[in-house]
Amino acid sequence: MWTPLIASAFRKQHGNVYLMTWRSILSCIELCKQPPAQNMPAVPAPFPRLLLLLLLLSIYSPTLATEFLFNGFKQAANFSLDASARIISNGVLQLTNDSKSQIGHAFLSSPVHMLHNRSVAASFSTAFVFDIVTVNGSGGDGLAFVVATSKTLPGAENGQFLGLLSSQNNGNFSNHLFAIEFDTVKAIGPCTDIDENHVCVDVNSLQSNVSKPAAYYADGGKKVSVDLLSGQPIQAWIDYNGGTSILNVTIAPLPLPRPRRPLISHAIDLSPIFKEYMYVGFSAATGKLTSFHYILGWSFSTDGVASSLDLSQLPLPPRQKEASPASRASILKTAVVSSI
Ligand SMILES: [Ca+2]
Question: Does pTM surpass 0.85?
Answer without folding.
Answer: no
